[in-house]
Specification:
The chain contains ten helices and 16 strands. The chain is globular and about 60 Å long.
Length: about 350
């Protein structure tokens, strides 16, 4: 990777980095860039705080990455989760323990904290802003999440109270999808699932989540959610995306979900958001210091993103379809978890 440039040399430069998208990648990258005195403008289409479709389960991120980005404080009180319980339909298959605890915190809280850190460090933030500049313009980073495309998936999420999971993370699978439940702050549990779109389901808004669970054979969980307390405005839905590497545009720096979307069962999506910001950071610093061109910065970032994420994206692509078949019950019940997880980190 490119070598970091000193503050002294950057102080003589005024190149501004424009970031489109104020989610985990955009906010953490903006904070890291400001640590190196680089001017940053960030455009976020929504407001803070807000709920997003997200598992809110951070598995595999290193403390070094969080320190390099300057965001450790925002995650200092995140819950530590280690126990996992798998279900297929209404049948409990197994319990297991993660070798390294995962972090759990809602995007509603984490995005707000990162926004406050970024603002306090001089990031010029425009909310409710859909930046009109071309994404291939020099110094413009795309971190705006999924690239809209035809897809067969729908993601659904809500915060609920009134259920008592049997583990820190419950995973419920079936023939059309899967859903994870994990506790976040203030006693809320995040219920977030990925399902194949089923046009026969006529439910709308909050009713979609239990409706998809019933279609998936998760009847007991659907009943629990139906009668649980739902956090106001926490229900979110997203569709129109494809998993895996996203379409590449030359001379465009795409990070986070704009670069690649990993299936959510891995618990690795939030980690990849942070890691992609960390990977891009030295190349953006070198560009701001006039050490490399924008084209070179984009090329090097994309190259290192592919190298860093190749193994976990490839492994998830092969494992993901298995979760939808009857044979997955045997896999989930008997397969050694640690070697599988090592492929996804």
């Amino acid at each position: 990777m490119a070598r970091f440039t000193t503050r002294a040399s950057l102080a003589r430069l005024n190149k501004t980095i424009t970031i489109i998208g104020g989610g985990l990648t955009g906010l953490s990258l903006s904070i890291a860039l400001r640590k190196h005195a680089i001017p940053v403008k960030l455009h976020e289409a929504g407001n803070y705080p807000r709920h997003r479709v997200c598992g809110e389960f951070i598995s595999g991120v290193s403390s070094e990455t969080l320190e390099n980005l300057g965001i450790s404080a925002a995650l200092s009180d995140a819950l530590n989760h280690q126990s996992v319980c798998w279900f297929s339909g209404d049948q409990k298959l197994r319990e297991t323990t993660l070798q390294t605890p995962a972090l759990a915190i809602s995007r509603f809280l984490l995005d707000q904290r990162l926004y406050q850190i970024a603002f306090a460090n001089g990031v010029l933030i425009h909310t409710q802003s859909r930046h009109a500049t071309q994404v291939d313009a020099c110094g413009t980073v795309r971190a705006s999440g999924r690239i809209p495309s035809p897809g067969s998936w729908i993601g659904l999420k809500a915060h609920i109270k009134g259920i008592i999971p049997s583990a820190n993370l419950e995973m419920h699978s079936g023939p059309i999808g899967y859903l994870g439940i994990t506790q976040v702050e203030d006693g809320w549990h995040n219920a977030c699932g990925l399902f194949r779109i089923d046009r026969s389901i006529k439910a709308k808004q909050e009713e979609l989540l239990p409706a998809y669970l019933r279609k998936n054979g998760n009847h007991i969980l659907a009943d629990q959610l139906q009668f649980a307390e739902w956090r106001n405005d926490s229900f979110s839905a997203v569709a129109g995306f494809s998993l895996g590497n996203q379409p590449y545009t030359p001379n465009t720096m795409c990070l986070g979900d704009s670069h690649a979307i990993i299936p959510p069962f891995t618990g690795n999506g939030m980690t990849m958001a942070f890691e992609s910001a960390e990977i891009a950071l030295p190349h953006l610093i070198a560009y701001a210091a006039d050490q490399i061109s924008w084209q070179k910065a984009c090329y090097l970032t994309d190259k290192h993103l592919h190298k860093h994420f190749r193994k976990r994206l490839t492994a998830s692509r092969f494992i993901h379809p298995l979760l939808f078949h009857c044979a997955s019950r045997h896999l989930l019940r008997h397969a050694p978890i640690s070697p599988i997880l090592s492929l996804l980190r």
